[in-house]
Amino acid sequence: xxxxxxxxxxxxxxxxxxxxxxxxxxxxSDKPEEMAVKWASQGARFLHLVxxxxxxxxxxxxxPVIQRILKNVKIPVELGGGIRTMENIDEVLSMGVxxxxxxxxxxxxxxxxxxACFKYGERIVVGIDAKDGIVAVEGWGISGNVxxxxxxxxxxxxxxxxxxxxxxxxxxTLSGVNAAATAKLARESGIxxxxxxxVKSLEDIWAVKAYEKDGIAGVIVGKSIYxxxxxxxxxxxxxxxxx
Length: 243
Description:
Blueprint: E1 2-10, E2 13-18, E3 21-29, H1 32-41, E4 46-51, H2 52-57, H3 63-72, E5 77-80, H4 86-95, E6 99-102, H5 104-108, H6 110-120, E7 124-131, E8 134-137, E9 142-147, H7 148-157, E10 162-167, H8 179-189, E11 192-196, H9 202-209, E12 216-221, H10 223-227, H11 232-240
Parallel strand pairs: 1-4, 1-12, 4-5, 5-6, 6-7, 7-10, 10-11, 11-12
Antiparallel strand pairs: 1-2, 2-3, 7-8, 8-9
Helix pairs in contact: 1-3, 9-11
């Protein structure tokens, strides 16, 4: 199981939001590339980058920042936020990003997801962000009017091998990860799922680890490693243990 260290970017800065609310923002660094180096030095094997401005604009906005991160770390990175066309996908992957995360477009244009999977295979992952089991789109501001399990099955059918599932009601709250719902999604969709939202402590890592055999492939840690409620190195040790 992989621990993904999250770097959310808004206005060129490393920030965290509370429940996806852009009006409740905490700035942790003016130089996201420095945070990338910090997490890599603590053993992170993968970085999870989100272009928050891109999610709202509907197109990538912070690519210069992403380029600086890529120059400063050697570990793979995945990027989501506003990637909604094949041109966006081509551009981001050609920069050196390992995987792109498709969010809103998975609901709006599943045919594009299918084409992207055909071209890039497992370098395409889908981010499903939900509240009360209903998918949210456009930077979490709008209901996608589709249930999580339904969308996951559709994505599996077009070739997606990995889903990132975020429980919006927990994201940035340090209220605990929704491990059971994530495992349920993995079982019902038949594909690997990465848990996201609410991780606070090592207890959450253990909770997710318990469902690894159900198909949970990883967990994203964000606010917890910035506030110090979670020790990244210890979390990686737990995640790396043989089941």
